[in-house]
Amino acid sequence: MMCYLRNLMCLSVLIALLLAAPAFSAYTFEGGNAISHEVGGEKISVSEWSDVSSGDDLYIGYGASGKLTGDGGSGTVYNTYVGNNNSGEMVLTGSSTDFTNDNDFAVGAFDSGELSVSNGAYLFVRAGLQVGLESQGIMTVHGGDVKSGGIVMNNSDSADADGSSLTITGGGTVSTGNLYHYNNSSSMTIEDGIVDLDGDITAYGGTFTINVGLSGSLDLGGMYWDDDMESFLGFIDAQNDSTINLNLWDGSDYVDYSALTEDVDYQVEDCELTIIPDPATMALLGLGSLFIRRRRT
């Protein structure tokens, strides 16, 4: 009995120590990177994640090309600039990885930048997520989860930002407020996953292209529950001399939605746009599901 009680006490102590231990964090830097302890403050080169505080600004690609990889644990900063005075890359991967940005997050800030959120990783941007600030930004969400206050594509008239893109694959999700496009050309491609906007999509200049794939979903309008394309298009606004292209997958390529037939090739339900698979594709999807069920069995 005494032995049992001692073992129980040891187990209780071990559990308490585990609960009190800091969350495991596997964030690693490569190349040139920096932080500043206040907005617009002096930039300090950084090579260890332990030197980064939650109120810091983070510069990936400072003095030389730089990279930050998060593969486990939590990270928090104030502002993030992926691509500062050199190219930058940020990779968040794995279901145990979550990164919080308390203010603005720029991919392609002042030099080219790339951001990948994959395999269950979570990115939360409290304010605006900018893809293509002064330079080209490439963002990929592959089976990851991204939430932000809003998304801005190409937020300057710099030609260096031309071609910025946001791609969702692997069942990834992006939840945000409004999406704005300002200059040059940029694109959002939803191959396999969901983009859920509480508001609308507005272009103020240049050309913004939206591609919705076979397994993609674009949900606009927040609490509006319209079930037709005409109402859906009311949340897409091209102002000034801008252009917004809405392309849907037709089985072999992305084509303008007007070339397809509503409720045959695509559908809008509760202001969510999805593709209707052709019978052959549906049969293949059914066989795939059956194969998966059999393997699980």
Structural class: mainly beta
Radius of gyration: 22 Å
Count of individual beta strands: 25
Helicity level: 10-25%
Q: End-to-end distance, in Å?
A: 43 Å
Strand content: over 45%
Largest sheet, strands/sense/barrel: 25 strands, mixed
Walk me through this protein's architecture.
It is globular, with a radius of gyration of 22 Å. Residues 1-5, 13-24 and 287-297 have low confidence and may be disordered. It is mainly β. The chain has helices spanning 2-20, 229-233, 279-296; strands spanning 27-31, 33-36, 44-45, 57-60, 66-70, 73-77, 79-82, 88-93, 97-101, 105-107, 113-118, 122-131, 137-142, 145-153, 164-169, 172-176, 179-181, 185-197, 201-203, 207-219, 236-238, 243-249, 254-256, 266-269, 272-275. It has a 25-stranded mixed β-sheet that branches. The chain has three helices and 25 strands.
Please sum up the structure shown.
The chain is mostly beta strands. It has 3 helices and 25 strands.
Which labels suit this protein?
14% helix, disordered C terminus, 46% strand, 25-stranded mixed beta sheet, single chain, 25 strands, mainly beta, 297 residues
Set out the fold topology.
Layout: H1 2-20, E1 27-31, E2 33-36, E3 44-45, E4 57-60, E5 66-70, E6 73-77, E7 79-82, E8 88-93, E9 97-101, E10 105-107, E11 113-118, E12 122-131, E13 137-142, E14 145-153, E15 164-169, E16 172-176, E17 179-181, E18 185-197, E19 201-203, E20 207-219, H2 229-233, E21 236-238, E22 243-249, E23 254-256, E24 266-269, E25 272-275, H3 279-296
Parallel strand pairs: 4-7, 5-8, 6-9, 7-10, 8-11, 9-12, 10-12, 11-13, 12-14, 13-15, 14-16, 14-17, 15-18, 16-18, 17-19, 18-20, 19-21, 20-22
Antiparallel strand pairs: 1-5, 2-3, 2-4, 20-25, 22-23, 24-25
